[in-house]
Design brief:
The protein is α+β, with helices and mostly antiparallel strands and 733 residues long. It contains 24 helices and 19 strands. The strands form 7 sheets. The protein has a 6-stranded mixed β-sheet with strand order 11-10-19-18-13-14. Strands 9-12-15 form a 3-stranded antiparallel β-sheet, with no helix packed on it. The N and C termini lie far apart (67 Å).
Length: 733
């Protein structure tokens, strides 16, 4: 240890762990993830981490004294903290060194997931919060950034002493996974020009420079019509966060959650249904699922993303490529495409036989209660799945086969394409074809189950007689309205090695006017009854304009909300705001607002799992896309598992339990996920399917192709084009 280093360490401001609260430490460790911790982290009250020399990487070590000296001179008021040595961490760093810092980390890659599992277990096992953050700080600068962020965030989500911590939005940590390369380059150029000359840049209200993100294809590509859905930041964040809450490997309490396999099925089934409806709104043909692993992939995708970790563009995929056998030594992945056929056939055989094969030769029945959960854990396996060596890892390896189609033998040393990581996979059109194949497997199992009997659908003594939808500031009922929203997001926390400055990017996403459900219910019983209200939306007609057959329509119902209500004897009027949805969460709270203790009006809670609220309803079209709203009242007493936490507890992801469940507790809805549309029906139409405790309402979704400049989802003065009025005589402002 140099004399300078000894002098610096002995003269730093002594700060205890109690003074450096867990929230600030979390934000600091995730701030500018590619920069070493020797560079102060944070804006409001920066933290300087004093790292023992043996944990400073070889490429930084020669300049450590310069960085420390610079930090001491320019950040004299910083809080500083001494990281303590940990020999166990040192051994693990050596173990993780095979995954270079410049490689793209992917939970689909078994060797990467093995490392993540080991690191997560280690962090989860730390005896106290001090040991946890000390180990995390050492890992941060010495392992692959993607590996660290995954393991650190999973641990934050699941440690009991981290319940109060709110994580920053993941797009601020890795903006290159959400914002196109040219836009990020322009942002970095602005940061260089700004430098540190403007002392006001650390203020929450500072002026920002706005950049527009770029499209990934021209309008000559039909699939570009759905780029607003596939490349939406909120949708991709939801997918990433879901897999952080439900990782493939790790401690049993982290991985083997209640009905995890069934939730994998339902969450992705709902994604597909929403995607199908968006295709219909845009006059695109229905999705063609992936069926033949030996046929050309017709879809091309050029993501326009640049990864800072690997300092290269994410690999594009031209149209017409063929999947090839994988033999990638560095990634420890060897697989023949024929194996995908074999694994799928084994799963389909289990469905046909109604039972899965266990390692000892015995079998387990795929019954109507747990069968879908068992099957889900086989299709997307964990270390706790049944007979993983036999059924293997179909879902993940299809992702990898497509992700490495450009370099299956690692000849050109190319990394994964976007389909190969959970945070970017949903951008690629082939993701939906892949999951169409996966969903087909689940649907074949569901077809083996008997249709719901009438008594399984009814709620005795409860009748729903009417349902209306009222959109804010709109006089006509049962009409919903969507438009484009321009939102500004902060990039300063992700522009590693560039001066801190007020650099942001403007992104445009779909949004809608808020609305209210009004439901009329009659309780014919003598006593009050508690009901569970379920609200769904589905298309009404097929591409030819014919009313959809119910068995086709039922696979397109998307869940909009689920909540409980007390029904007194007689007539009841139920009102529910769209913002209260059990499916969605608001846009993520920024790092800056967390650092400055800003309280969001609609706080998404400590985890980012939940469908983005701005995508709650489909886009619709200018003529008014026709659909049907279905409201169902079921018996709360038999259908719901009461939770032991409040809505604002650290245990719950806001109210987005429909797609995300609740931490450390049973999935709250006892009915099969997707009920009552998850089984074949003898009904030919929706009307024939319905029972007295259900009510439907025809609705139209109008889309206006204009952009609002507001960030709020509840503004009355959305900007509409004055030259084109809605048929409902909407007043523009």
């Amino acid at each position: 240890m140099s004399a300078f280093w000894l002098l610096f360490v002995t003269t730093v401001l002594k700060v205890s762990w109690a003074q450096l609260d867990a929230q600030r430490l979390t934000l600091a460790l995730l701030d500018r993830i590619h920069e070493p911790l020797l560079i102060p982290k944070g804006e409001r009250a920066p933290i300087t981490f004093i790292m023992p020399p043996e944990y400073i990487s070889d490429n930084i070590a020669p300049f450590a004294s310069i960085l420390v000296n610079k930090s001491s001179a320019s950040q004299a008021g910083n809080q500083k903290f001494q990281i303590e040595r940990n020999d166990e961490v040192s051994k693990l760093i050596e173990e993780f060194s095979s995954l270079e810092r410049t490689k793209r980390f992917s939970t689909f890659t078994p060797s990467h997931m093995n490392m993540a599992s080991t690191m997560t277990k280690f962090l989860m096992d730390q005896k106290d919060i001090k040991s946890f953050f000390n180990a995390a700080a050492i890992f941060r600068d010495n392992v692959n950034p993607g590996l660290f962020v995954h393991s650190f965030v999973v641990s934050i989500y699941h440690r009991e002493d981290c319940k109060s911590i709110k994580l920053p939005p993941l797009f601020e940590i890795f903006p290159e996974k959400f914002i196109d390369g040219p836009t990020l380059m322009e942002a970095k150029q602005l940061a260089l020009m700004l430098g540190d000359s403007n002392k006001q840049t650390s203020q929450l209200t500072s002026t920002v420079f706005d950049l527009e993100s770029n499209p990934t294809a021209s309008i000559r590509e039909p699939e570009q019509k759905l780029a607003y859905f596939r490349e939406d930041i909120g949708i991709n964040l939801h997918h990433w966060n879901w897999h952080l809450i439900y990782p493939f490997q790790g401690p049993e309490n982290v991985v083997n959650k209640d009905r995890r396999g069934e939730l994998f099925y339902y969450t992705h089934e709902q994604i597909l249904a929403r995607y199908e409806i968006e295709r219909m709104c845009n006059n695109l043909p229905r999705l063609v699922r992936l069926t033949d692993f030996h046929a050309p992939i017709t879809e091309a995708y050029f993501p326009k993303l640049f990864t800072q970790t690997a300092s290269k563009n994410w690999t594009p995929r031209p149209a017409g490529v063929l999947l090839k056998d994988l033999d990638r030594e560095a990634d420890q992945v060897v697989m023949e495409i024929n194996e995908l056929d074999l694994w799928r056939s084994r799963i389909m055989e289990a469905i046909d036989k109604g039972r899965v094969q266990k390692p000892d030769g015995s079998t387990l029945a795929l019954d109507e209660f747990d069968g879908i959960d068992v099957l889900g854990k086989i299709v997307e396996p964990t270390e706790y799945s049944i007979n993983r060596p036999y059924y293997n890892n179909l879902h993940n390896f299809v992702h990898l086969a497509i992700a490495w189609v450009h370099d299956p033998l690692e000849i050109y040393l190319e990394g994964l394409a976007v389909i190969g990581t959970v945070e970017t996979a949903m951008r690629d059109p082939v993701f939906y074809r892949l999951h169409g194949m996966i969903n087909h497997i689940f649907q074949k199992y569901k077809e083996t189950l008997a249709p719901y009997a009438e008594n399984e659908l009814k709620f005795n003594g409860i009748r729903l007689t009417n349902a209306l939808v009222s959109t804010d500031y709109i006089t006509s009922s049962n009409t919903l309205y969507t438009f484009w929203q321009r939102r500004t997001i902060d990039l300063s926390r992700g522009l590693d090695f560039f001066p801190r400055g007020p650099v942001s990017v403007k992104v445009v996403h779909l949004d809608h006017r808020n609305f209210t459900y009004q439901i009329t219910a009659f309780n014919d019983n003598l006593l009050a009854k508690k009901a569970l209200i379920r609200i769904f939306f589905a298309p009404k007609y097929d591409a030819s304009g014919e009313e959809l057959n119910f068995n086709k329509q039922r696979t397109l119902f998307i869940e909009l909300d689920k909540f409980d209500v007390q029904l007194k004897p007689g007539s009841n009027t139920i009102t529910r705001r769209s913002m209260e949805s059990s499916v969605t969460i608001p846009f993520a709270q920024s790092t800056k607002s967390l650092e400055y203790n800003e309280t969001a009006i609609n706080d998404p809670g400590r985890c980012g799992c939940g469908w983005p609220h701005h995508m709650l309803i489909p886009k619709g079209n200018t003529e008014g896309y026709p659909g049907v709203l279905l409201v169902i009242a079921s018996n709360y007493a038999t259908d719901w598992t009461p939770t032991k936490v409040s809505k604002n507890s650290g245990d719950v992801c806001q109210t987005a339990a429909s797609y995300c469940g609740i931490f450390n507790q049973k999935y709250p809805d006892k009915k099969p996920m997707g009920y009552p549309f998850d089984r074949l029906s003898t009904a030919k139409t929706l009307a024939e399917f319905m029972t007295p405790n259900m009510v439907s309402q025809s609705v139209k979704i109008f889309h206006k192709n204009v952009v609002s400049g507001r960030n709020s989802l509840d503004d009355a003065d959305v900007i509409y084009d004055e030259s084109q009025k809605y048929e409902e005589n909407l007043t523009s402002v």
